[in-house]
Amino acid sequence: CAAVALQAVAAPPVSQLRSVHGATQLFVDGKPFLVRGGELDNSSASSPAFMAPVWPRLKAMNLNAVLVPAYWERIEPTEGRFDFSSVDTVLANARKHDMRVVLLWFGSWKNSMSSYAPAWVKRDQSRFPRAQTSDGKGLEILSAHAGENLKADIRAYVALMKHIRDTDTLRTVIMVQPENEVGMIPEARDHSAAADAAFKAPVPAALTDYLAAHKDTLVPALREAWAAGGFKTGASWEATFGAGPATDEIFNAWFEGLYTGKVAAAGKAVYPLPAFVNAALIRPGRQPGQYPSGGPLPQVFDVWRAAAPAIDMLVPDLYFPNFVEWALKYETPGRGYFIPETGRVGAAEMAANAFWAYARLNAIGVSPYAPEYLSPEEQKVLGDANDVVAQLAPQILAAQGSGKLVGIRPPTAFDGKTDLSPQKLVLGRYTLDVHFKAPPPISIGQKEETELPGSHGGFVLQTGPDEFLVAGTGMYVYFGTTDGAQAGIESVWEGRYTKGVWVPGRCLNGDETNQGRHLFVPTAKFTVHRVRLYTY
Ligand code: N0T
């Protein structure tokens, strides 16, 4: 009888990207969902024994989703024979720990290379051709110009998507990333015979037509190229875009984008999970080929869009200190924003970046890389920060795109130098002057604040005409108004939302706020501050 009743309950809807009140959000089980992610290090999920103690730690870090590879070589060790046990084990453990999963398809390409292709693919290079350098050397990179490569990848990926569709009735898997950090190295494009032939052949009309149809919104380099006389049709790549590494990159982006897009489309046809591709970013001064050429990078966004319409989001792997600068290059309103990888900075700094991203970019999620390798102290900080995001998720989701949620983050350059000048925000009738440096001490009892470089930022959420929620790290906020009146702090409370109900902690109207002069958001101690203002 119970089994009958269970069967009668319809499976929840497949997750979906939806644009609501000016933000594109991820709907899971039919409701908006804010991803507090973590991407497992590449090899962790290959060993259930290794993962056993990791799962509770991920849970303790308050993750609600884990990004996990699905390894082609494990799924199809023998051609045409599929074994999904490695994926099933991950999904079962994720469910046990009440976490969702984003699957990363380590298929033809993983960080440009093809290290996760099954042995039967690696060993048969006449059937599965490789990309080549200009001097004819083979690379451990499957060529995008080989139909057999694409066919084999699609067959495995579709089998995986069918398996998820048929077995994951709880909708544990919420998104998928076809391939990983694609792009050509060490040269700007593939020079195999098939690639060279394609390079001399006319640029496909599908690309030039797309560029022509989108000529007003093209990225600057392509817009300039267009302005210089449009794009010829029926001409070679060099005749169309000029000779040089930029053209090699466009060429490579088109063919790797087309390939990845076909994989994504074939998967969506059987199970329509939202799909994104991730990019390895560019260090200053590097040329295409010195970085993965033709990956989903800003200068070739239009090429990817034309080549791979089945891919919903082109997203950055954000490891550089100039996080904000790079993050803004990936803003594409109406498509959704996700950060599948971030790291190489402290947990408090990652949290400052994440809070800013949820607010400023309407991010559907942020996912530190290899959280299982953070120190226990860093795991605690990340867990506390995620706890705050979890408490405020309903309010964040309701406010994204409304103008009532504002991100704060002082800009840092690639060399790590941060501009700590104060920032001014306006919310309703109030102005907020956000400082990142401690004011000279006024009250004798004021707590000493130790500075943690990089750990400044967060968000402000307006919850009423005179009321704000503030969360983050390393900020001093002075309040004023836009209409000449003075603003005073009625009260500052710290506290937490438990099942959506505010449970106040301490009232901070004394030394912590310099007796009401400013709000103080301490460094790396994540909590919710509820501020009420008045005017006089
Ligand atoms: C990532 C990861 C994994 C300070 C590297 C990031 C993952 C891949 N690549 O740990 O291999 O599969 O997507 C590259 C960014 C490094 C930049 C560091 C600058």
N-to-C span: 67 Å
Q: CATH first level of the largest domain: which class?
A: Alpha Beta
Mean pLDDT: 95
Bound molecules: ligand N0T
Share of β-strand residues? 25-35%
Helix content: 25-40%
Q: How many domains is the backbone divided into?
A: 2
Superfamily (CATH H level) name of the largest domain: Glycosidases
Would you tell me the structural class of the helices and strands?
alpha/beta
The fold-level CATH name of the largest domain is TIM Barrel
Please report the number of helical segments: 16
Write out the strand line-up for the largest beta sheet, numbering strands in chain order: 9-6-5-4-13-12-11-10
Find the count of extended strands (DSSP E, 2+ residues): 23
Low-confidence segments, given as residue ranges, are: none
Outline: globular
* C-alpha Rg (nearest Å): 25 Å
The largest sheet is: 8 strands, parallel
Reported CATH architecture of the largest domain:
Alpha-Beta Barrel
Give the gist of this structure:
The chain has helices spanning 2-8, 48-51, 54-60, 72-75, 85-96, 119-122, 147-167, 193-200, 205-213, 220-227, 237-241, 245-270, 301-307, 323-329, 347-360, 376-399; strands at 16-20, 23-28, 31-33, 35-39, 65-71, 100-110, 130-132, 138-142, 173-180, 276-280, 313-318, 338-342, 365-368, 405-408, 423-427, 430-435, 457-464, 467-473, 475-481, 487-498, 501-507, 519-521, 528-535. It has 536 residues and is α/β, with parallel strands linked by helices. Strand 12 (338-342), helix 15 and strand 13 (365-368) form a beta-alpha-beta unit.
